[in-house]
Amino acid sequence: MPDTLIFGMEVFLNGLMAGVLYALVALGFVLIYKASGIFNYAQGVMALFAAMTLVGIMEGQVPFAHLINAILGTEVHHFGWHIPAFLAILLTMGVMVFLAWAVQRLIFRHLVNQEPIILFMATIGLAYFLEGLGDIMWGADIKKLDVGLPQGINTAIDEVTYGWFGYGFFIDNLDIVATVIAALLVVVLVMFSQYTKQGRAMRAVADDHQAALSVGVSLNFIWIMVWSVAGFVALVAGIMWGTKSGVQFSLSLIALKALPVLMLGGFTSIPGAIVGGLIIGVGEKLFEFLVGPLIGGATENWFAYVLALIFLVFRPQGLFGEKIIERV
Amino acid sequence: MKDMEEGYITEDGRKIGGVVMEMKNITLRFGGVVAIKDISFDIREGEIRAIIGPNGAGKSSMLNVISGFYVPQEGEVWFRGEKRPPMKPFQVARQGIARTFQNIALFEGMTVLDNVMTGRLTHMTTGLFTQAIWKGRAEAEEVENREKAERIIDFLEIQSIRKTPVARLPYGLKKRVELARALVAEPKLLLLDEPMAGMNVEEKEDMSRFILDVNDEFGTTIALIEHDMGVVMDLSDRVVVMDYGKKIGDGTPDEVRSNQDVIDAYLGVSHD
Ligand SMILES: Nc1ncnc2c1ncn2[C@@H]1O[C@H](COP(=O)(O)OP(=O)(O)OP(=O)(O)O)[C@@H](O)[C@H]1O
Ligand SMILES: [Mg+2]
Questions:
Q1: Is residue B35 within 6 Å of ligand 1 at its C-beta?
Q2: Interface confidence (ipTM) of the complex
Q3: Residues of chain A with pLDDT under 50
Q4: Angle CA B143–B134–A188, to nearest 5
Q5: What are the structural domains, with CATH classification, of chain B?
Q6: pTM of this prediction?
Q7: Residue A323: what pLDDT?
Q8: How much is the average pLDDT of B60-85?
Q9: Inter-chain contact B109–A218, Cβ cutoff 8 Å?
Q10: Which of A141, A274, B238, B248 has the maximum number of C-beta atoms within 10 A of its C-beta?
Q11: Is the shortest distance between the CB of B31 and ligand 1 below 6 Å?
Q12: Closest approach atom of ligand 1 to CA B28
């Protein structure tokens, strides 16, 4: 087999795995957008905030330690305990649900029926508020996150592929775990929205507010619920990315990876987010591998956006949207 | 007036029960506009109660007050013998009051069946956690709701479009789907805002028949708004007549028809 094909296969696999994570982040956007018409600029920062909170809770950090010490003149930093990862994840989820409630109660409840651009502005404000809040609560330093996920080269795949091709694929264990978890989560989310009472109510709200009210659905409850689910998605994404590259500001930029996915898949389609994520993941890795060397590399920064833009021109309704024909 | 506590028997032999819904001195204002001015009336169990009146009389506003979409500045709403505290529309729906809208509010992206299924949401009691770990229980509930939905779909003769996305349906059928969604909730009170508006004669006849059948078969209490005097006279047991936010008549179709204020309002006698 020619070398390019073998290397290409490795790149393809890595691309698929990156794609599943992109799909996961994009799903966070889609859920909120569908149910409330809000494009949540803060989705990335939510992932950062969730990861910071998780580290803080696991390490037994005192939240707002700086502030407390400055006001009371004390020197507290740690509670002096460590909390097991599983429990810490549950507690962090609790924090994310509380955040969802607060966001709805303090911000969006007052903005019902406002223009989409106003709602969007509010999420920009929310993003920077959350970023500041995270820093004040847990400190702005780069943190290491280790919830016990396996890391490093997967030797089994390395050996098997070496046996087949005389070349061992480098596939990171963390990527495999992340892919499996993200794929599971996507399945769970789809099942949730299709087959549960709450999922049905969520689709009802996404479709028509008045009609939803008339069949007994509380808009407020559904909005808190979707923000909680988006918070959960952010937490999972935060764990994956945080484990890989440390918990730091750049983590919030994963949201930027979701944008081309949304352009491709449409803002309201769950399958769109999944397929879009995979196309972008595979596309950008393969492009970098095949074309990158010819034009000086670093194509991963822009390729996804250009692909999405070209796509947008020909299919503005996204992959799975129905063709928009203007009635005259 | 047939005003005994215990209700009355209609000419066609249906038994009408006691008062289920009572509006007491309702006043609703929008800024300077007084949409409803100090109106009181009641709705009895099992009856078809019509609200009629010229355009802008405040009929829809009254229905919106009953269903919680509008909050009146003054007055009380009594439901099943209890004074109702201020409620959100979704809470009213959970109390067993279902409705349709003058301008149709369906879930356009869903199929007819899915739309009708949402009407069962108030009856879906299994919690999220139970649904996740106890599949049998959730399935049993789903099957029951599904059966009820299918029965209503058969009843309203829309089987052939069960799987059609609502957005593709013509206006008349949409109205029928909306009725199905409200009906499947097994409401204690069903509110219909101009169920026949914009329909052709044949569709109107169908809809009239369905409304009568629903009332007859399920004993559903219905309050409906309608413009067409003829239709109202055929369908309803008692009629409230509104004009410029005020109640100008209340009684049986015959009583209302011979009321001079009502005749004036409908003939467009000037108000001064
Ligand atoms: N949400 C609202 N905001 C402001 N004014 C309103 C609102 N809803 C109704 N109104 C006003 O209240 C009055 C009564 O309106 P309503 O819709 O109840 O009349 P209607 O009897 O249902 O008329 P139609 O037969 O045209 O449906 C009108 O003057 C209308 O403009
Ligand atoms: Mg009206």
A1: yes
A2: 0.91
A3: none
A4: 90
A5: 2-96+187-267 (3.40.50.300), 109-180 (no CATH)
A6: 0.87
A7: 61
A8: 96
A9: no
A10: A274
A11: no
A12: 12
